[in-house]
Amino acid sequence: MADVGLVDVSLRDGNQSLWGATGLRTAHVLQVAPLLERVGFRALDYSSSTAMGVAVRTHREDPWERIRLTRAAMPRTKLQFIGTGFRFISWQNSHPETMQLVYDRLAVNGIDRVVVLDPMHDMDAARETARRLKQAGIGEVVGALTFTISAVHDDAFYADLATRMAACPDIDRVYVKDPAGILTAERARTLLPRIKAQLGTTALELHSHATIGLSPLTYSIAPELGVEVVQVGCGALGNGSSLPEARRTVANLREMGHRIDVDDRALGLACAFFDRLAAAEELPRGRPQDFDAAFLHHQIAGGVMTTTRRQLSEIGMEHRFDALVEEVGRVRAELGHPIMVTPFPQMVVSQALFNVIGERYATVPDQVIRYVLGSFGRPTGQIAPDVQDRILDRPRARELAAEPDPPTPAELRRRFPPGISDEELLLRAHMPAEQVDAMLAAGPAPRHFNPELAPVLTLLRELGDRRSVHDLGVTTPGLRLQVHRRPEETVHG
Questions:
Q1: Which domains does the chain carry?
Q2: What pTM was estimated for this model as a whole?
Q3: How far, in Å, CA of 147 to CA of 449, rounded?
Q4: What span, in angstroms and rounded, lies between the C-alpha atoms of 46 and 77?
Q5: Total Cβ atoms within 10 A of residue 279
Q6: Residue ranges of E strands in 276-356
Q7: Burial letters for 110-126: b for 16+ Cβ neighbours within 10 Å, e otherwise?
Q8: Position 468 confidence tier, pLDDT thresholds 50, 70, 90
Q9: Cα dist. 147→117, 168, 179, 336, 379 in Å?
Q10: pLDDT exceeds cutoff 80 at 390
Q11: Cys-Cys with 17: which of 75, 198, 241, 382 at CB 3.0–4.6 Å?
Q12: Top-confidence residue, 298 or 206
């Protein structure tokens, strides 16, 4: 029997999959960080450029400050960042030297583990990213083998990639990333040993979403197939479109005879915090899912699925969801079977939505045009010739083909006010100015949060907005609070 380690994904992938990446604020993270530190996780899946952008845009919080504060609150557990290697926050590619600056600042602020996820499995690009990460001082670089089902992604395909990752001196570990949760136990029995045989002494981890209920069973046999670490979500941020719930995974693996060295009490407290947070903020809880064979067709990852449902609802088209899902599978095949991992699910789903709303490929987003132009690398499969011709035979495609190279850090510094920090420079270079300005104007993010106080604070805010209320008293055991509005603020009927 094996010793099995855990990586917790609650703060990044759990939040993204179940709460649209917007559910967690800095105060939430800092409140639970000491508990997560005590559990004994091998690492936390902590952030991404998408998550950093959401912090600025949605919460007006400085993501760099959040990293620093979290590192101070939990100095021992590795904090993981996941990135594609060629972009930061925005969809446009960044200059290699700009990406080097990103990696440098991530390391300085407290990130010490980075996943290299090249969505095209371009090993030259992955090796270059890993080299730059080590140059920045990142202690642990993890190569991602992103699992999908297609005519070209067989066991031999992944075994070849594993061989090349094991030969890269800057890649320390490898993980199989299954964003759609479609890795069955049957396929795992052939795939994982084949990968592990090529990795040799390089450690293998498994990251598989619970979207259609397959991953808990796959996790239960993974250690016997060479997997040393499995990735999980805590409490309300486990299961559903997130990853298998941590406590159930620990219980299952121990039942199978494996050793899991974690502090069970601290794990329970961390899970309970996310449960209370979900209740206080009225956020959905991840729940075990039924098998849904449609996912084997469209392979939409959990976070994208949640966002897509919300967007359809917002435009009054929730009744077209099944048609959209069918179109996603068709578009993916026409675009050469891109792996449904960021940024490609967003591209494929956006194109499918335009196709469902109107004539197929009459409207094509810029990012899909860039994909067909080769801006993101060479597709694994062939793009359907008629689709390729229709996308490229438009003025916008010619405009994008003539785009200048992305700016270097030196060029960015000339564009923005002198004297700003590298961290602010990177935000301003990749986000609208008004969003960064609003973040700075908001000041430091709150650092404390108690889920039990959320209903009381909501009540106080709502009563405070009623100008006719001029006296308010709150009395509980050990607390007596009196609030009086100034006379000039009172509105008389």
A1: 5-281 (3.20.20.70), 295-401 (1.10.472.90), 451-489 (no CATH)
A2: 0.85
A3: 38
A4: 11
A5: 15
A6: none
A7: bbbbbbbbbbbbbbebb
A8: confident
A9: 12, 20, 8, 15, 15
A10: yes
A11: 241
A12: 206
Q: Are 78 and 111 in contact (CB under 8 A)?
A: no
CA atoms within 13 A on the CB side of 147: 24
For residue range 14-73, what is the model confidence (pLDDT) as tens digits?
999 999 899 999 999 999 999 999 999 999 999 999 999 999 999 999 999 999 999 999
The predicted structure's pLDDT at residue 490: 46
User: What is the mean pLDDT of the segment spanning 211-229?
Assistant: 96
Q: Where are the alpha helices (DSSP H) in 336-471?
A: 344-357, 366-373, 385-392, 395-401, 409-415, 422-430, 433-442, 454-464
d(C-alpha 445, C-alpha 428), whole Å:
19
DSSP 180-215: T----HHHHHHHHHHHHHHHTTSEEEEEE--TTS-H
**Alpha-carbon distances, residue 270 vs 13, 244, 380 (angstroms):** 16, 15, 41
Give the relative orientation of helices 344-357 and 366-373 as an angle to the nearest 10 degrees.
Answer: 120
Position 43 scores a pLDDT of 98
The token pair at 46 is: 């902590």
Average pLDDT score, the chain: 91
